[in-house]
C-alpha cells in the first residue's frame, strides 16, 4: 500500500463559549487538502473513511495520515457525478463498506452502490448491489445519500437527472426516488410497489435529495432535497408516499419561470420545512449522542449556498426553530455526521476540502 499524503492534526484548536442555546464546543481540523470530499464514515479503531468526488476513497488515521484505498469501482466523473456517500458496517468478519457513486458513460449513467469488505487499505470481494435501472444522459442530480434501515436494509436516494423531472412521478422509473433494498442487493418483500412498477421504490416525487437520516429514538426517516430556485425541502419519509416534485413546489425555475402553479397538490405530501431562497442543503444528521445532551433530537443540515451549518429543532412534527451553527467554519458544507462517541463531523466542499470535528470544550 502507498501513502498518498500525510496530514497533520490542526496546529491550533478553535474554541469559544457560544450563545446560550449552544454548548461550549471546540472545532478541530482532522484533515485538509481534500479534493471535493463528499462524505465521512467511522471505523471501529477510530480511523475514518472519506470519499472524494473525483473517485478516491481515503482512510484517515487518528494521527492524520491519509492513505488511498484500492479496489474501488470506476466512476463516471463529470458535472455533479463521481463518488458520493460512504457507510460502514461492522460484521462478524470485519468491516463492510457501502459506497454510492455515479456509474456509466455520458449517454447512459446513473446512481449505483458498491459493497465490499475493507481489509486494511483495500476493498475486496466487491460488487454493485444497486444501479438505477433508469439511466440518463445528463451529469446532474444523482441524489446519492444512503442510510441503513431496519432488518438489514438500505435506503438510497436518486435524483431526477435534471432534464427528466417528470420521471420523479413515474413509478416505473428510478429517477427522483428513495429506493430500498436489502444489504445484499435483493428486494425486501414489504416494499410498497409491485407489478410493472419498480419494486425497489420506497417513495417518489423527489428532485435531488442529498440529505438522509434516521432518528434513532423512534426510527423516523427524514430527507432533505434541493429545490430549483427556492423550494429546498425537509420531508418526513413514509412508505409509498408521493413528495410532489414537480407537481408541487415552493421554488421556480432558474429562469424565473414557474415549475408548477401549485405549492400543494392532492395526493402529495407537504414538507415539514422549506427554504426560499435556497440554502443548497447537503448532509443531514439527527443528534442522539452523549457528548452534547442539550442537542438531543436536533437536526443539523449543511448549506452549500449559505456556507454554514443549520441547527433546527422539531416540535409536534414541524420545525420549531432554526439558526446558523459554527459560524467560524465559513465554507460550503457537504456532509455532517455524528461519530460513535457523539462528536459532530463536518465535511466542507471544494478543492481544499476539510474534515472538522466538533467536540465539547
TrEMBL record:
Listed Gene3D superfamilies: TolB, C-terminal domain (2.120.10.30)
The protein's name: PQQ-dependent oxidoreductase, gdhB family
Organism: Aequoribacter fuscus
